[in-house]
Amino acid sequence: MAISLSSILLPVSLLLTLVDAATVTYDFDISWVYANPDGVQNRPTIGINGKWPIPPIIATKGDRIIVNAMNSLGNESTSLHFHGLYQNGTNHMDGPESVTQCGIPAGGSFTYNFTVDQPGTYWYHSHTHGQYPDGLRGPLIVHDPDSPHKDLYDEEIVLTFSDWYHDLMHGLLADFISIKNPGGAEPVPNSALVNDTQNLTVSIQPGKTYLFRIINMGAFAAQYVWFEGHTMKIVEVDGIYTEPAEANMIYMTAAQRYSVVITTKNSTDANFAFVGSMDQDLFDNIPDGLNPNVTGWLVYDEKKEKPAPKEVEAFEPFDDFGLVPQDKEGIYDKVDHSLTLNLKMDNLGDGANYAFFNDVTYMPPKVPTLYTTLSTGPNATDPTIYGSNTNQFVLEANEVVEIVLNNDDPGKHPFHLHGHAFQVVSRSEDEAGAYTPSSSTSFPQTPMRRDTVLVHPNGNIVLRFKADNPGVWLFHCHIEWHVASGLVATMIEDPLGLQRQLSGKIPESHLQACKDSNTPTEGNAAGNTVNLLDLKGENTSPGPLPAGFTARGIVALAFSILAAFLGMGIIAWYGFAPIKAKTR
Amino acid sequence: MVNVFAVPVFFICFRECLETSIIVSVLLAFLKQTLGPERDATTHKKLVRQIWVGVALGIFICLCIGAGMIGAFYGLNKNVFEKAENIWEGIFSLVAAIIITLMGAALLRINKLQDKWRVRIAKAVQSKDESSLPVQGRFKRWCEKYAMFILPFITVLREGLEAVIFIAGVGLGMPASAFPLAVLCGLGAGVLVGYLIYKGGNRTSLQIFLIVSTCFLYLVAAGLFSKGVWYLEMNEWVKLAGEEAAESGSGPGSYDIRKSVWHVNCCSPGERGDGGWGIFNSLFGWQNSATYGSVISYNLYWLAVIVGFLLLGYKERTGHWPLQKPSQAVNEVESESSSHSGNVIEKKQEAVASSNVHELRE
């Protein structure tokens, strides 16, 4: 199963020569192909241009990226989100279906066109209902000729880690959000992959330094990653350069990225294993025979043996909270707008398990939220028009926003904000409960920034960012199951500024996608253009579970009691009868 | 509480023991009346001893068999029933409900039982007197000689085994610790009521007592019936949602919302520490999570009981079932009773017996 690294490096180097044009164009024909990355099961997989793994998107800081996406899936709509890119001025290119665009219908085409002014390690993936784990996710690398760390390494290597399912998401999702799964147990992956394969060999040379751009593009599982015999020096997280920090093991939630510098040994005496190990704490039921690990090797000498990885005694990963951004951006200490999101999992009236922010589970609106903003004029600042199930927050231009997230759930959740990297100013340990401002007085002065952060079980996090990027940005858990079960909030940032940027500028291919799928592009969340406060007909979640005794229960209980008394009356009648007969 | 006292077991012991003690009391009364101590003290004493030996031996054998059965069952139980606990609990509950239902009505007719047994004893004694019948073999002679031993022995054995089988049927789903107290109480109550009947106490208050206990018996049975259906539905739910979900306490996911009639996140009879609700459950079939199945089956059960008793009452008053022609019905009843008691000669014996009864009462 091992494929050599050259298969990835070759196109990378080819593309680098094209980069001078300052516009990189990708024509993506998205279609079903068959793939068997773990050697256990061949399955339909979403490929691009007839191939899977899908190609990486490579650009240099300042480039324009154009992706002409053609949906040849036939049975599903799709979309592409460029994870971590701020899309400043191009909110409509962000990708999430029903938020900034309509899904690209089967047979439809759609053009993404934006510039990247941010260097770093990113990835792109479908942002259509639970779709990307079927294969539609790949690396997106933005090179930086002015990197502060460019002298630290000689060469670059991209490593993607991912969990992998043998079944299609469509069926898995139907079973996940159903009465059959009232506990909300997420499907457990069947295997782990590195660079979409297993037993990867990475040829390296002695005495050199390599920048490993490591991406977790999995659906669910976080992974512990370590290189035997080598120390990592973290220099970037989620596109933010950090002061170099040494680590023996890192913990990457779904959607997180790390760039680490590794210095190779001076001799070629031995090869070394590296391991990605899925965090099994996330799994409710670990099936027999699940191998949570995927192994690769740093190969100094192809003739030498590739040793099996050694067992680790305990997982002791690097704590990313202590990282310091290289630009030393100070903490936003004056908060203009603090919002609290209380996370919980619960069941609704259909018996299925849903995820909630502040007791509301996300349901996609009928009109993509961006189009609501653009079509409602001055009313766009009124949160009501965005619907009852979108967890919307309207943010004013340039205010400092603080998100306090209280995790009232015993699971780990990686939270991602579109359009921004946020400062992580506070993160509690497990079981700390809800955040209280007095409990954390000492915030770091130069807090770590990233776009995806882990919150601990029953703990809390506090994030801050400046609302300087007009747009409709999702804030959501990056476990794809939880996106499907509604763990999503919508940040509507500077809606009037957004109108100034984008009114009348939505490209034809975007509007065509809506026409083809009969999706309205004007009005409030329910598609009402006349009375914007009238949400009749909007998408809503199922009702709550009936509480205790409803009318139905009371009637049933009353009838049962009546039946019992009537029955006993008849028994008494019968019991006394013979005595009367005798006395006669 | 439920783990210490199995209500259905109590009622079964009570009922079987009552029947036995009535038979014994009838025998003792018969002896007293025919050859009281003043007439033939030695024979009387001997025969009374025969009765008690028969009773003792019968009880002893029953205890052995019962203990063996229950022991074997609990040895087997752990392995066989563990995996599909809900389905077994459901089936056992339904079986128990049916058993209790069928024997419950008889409790109200215990008085009749007394008369019936007088007839049988008289018959047995009379056949001994009628030496005209051809007597062949030692065994038969021995039987005649020890009739006062065999009669109670067989009776006790029969009722006892019945009790053992019923208890096994009813108590399959219960912990072993639930049996001893319930069995002892049942036996005690049965003996007490039997003694009261022997003494010929206040018949009306006795009848009230019997009615009240029968009402309880049917309450228990209705609960068991409903519980049986509930368990079968639970079994389906576990199959669908997986054990983990179904065993997640009493919160959401522990029940099938589509079938729910009411659900309160407390007062679960299954949970430890909720002892009160456990009693409520075994007496009245209470569920904190009622389903359409459990509620409808509870009501249908009572409907069946009501209809059944109305029919029984109707028949006792008119001598035939509703919608049946009276003459036909009488014939049927006669042929039924004659098939029970053998032939016409016994009709005469019945008359003799009832005259004995009248003497006895004086």
UniProtKB/TrEMBL annotation, chain A:
Q: Where in the cell is it found?
A: Cell membrane
Q: Which residues form the signal peptide?
A: 1-21
Disordered: annotated segments: 428-447
Locate the compositionally biased regions of type Low complexity: 436-447
What region holds the Plastocyanin-like domain? 30-146, 155-302, 362-495
For molecular function, the Gene Ontology terms on record are:
copper ion binding; ferroxidase activity
Protein name in the entry: Multicopper oxidase
Q: Name the species this protein comes from.
A: Zopfia rhizophila CBS 207.26
UniProtKB/TrEMBL annotation, chain B:
**What GO CC terms are in its UniProt record?**
high-affinity iron permease complex
Q: Which GO terms describe its molecular function?
A: ferrous iron transmembrane transporter activity
This one is known as Plasma membrane iron permease
Q: How does it sit in the membrane?
A: Multi-pass membrane protein
* UniProt signal peptide: none
Mind telling me which residue stretches traverse the membrane in this protein?
A: 51-75, 87-108, 146-172, 178-198, 205-225, 295-314
List, alphabetically, the Pfam families matched.
Answer: FTR1
Sorted alphabetically, the keyword list is: Ion transport, Iron, Iron transport, Membrane, Transmembrane, Transmembrane helix, Transport
Compartments it resides in: Membrane
Keyword DNA-binding on entry: no
Q: Where is this region: Disordered?
A: 332-362
- Keyword Transmembrane helix on entry: yes
| Homology family | Belongs to the oxidase-dependent Fe transporter (OFeT) (TC 9.A.10.1) family.
Q: Where is the composition biased (Polar residues)?
A: 352-362
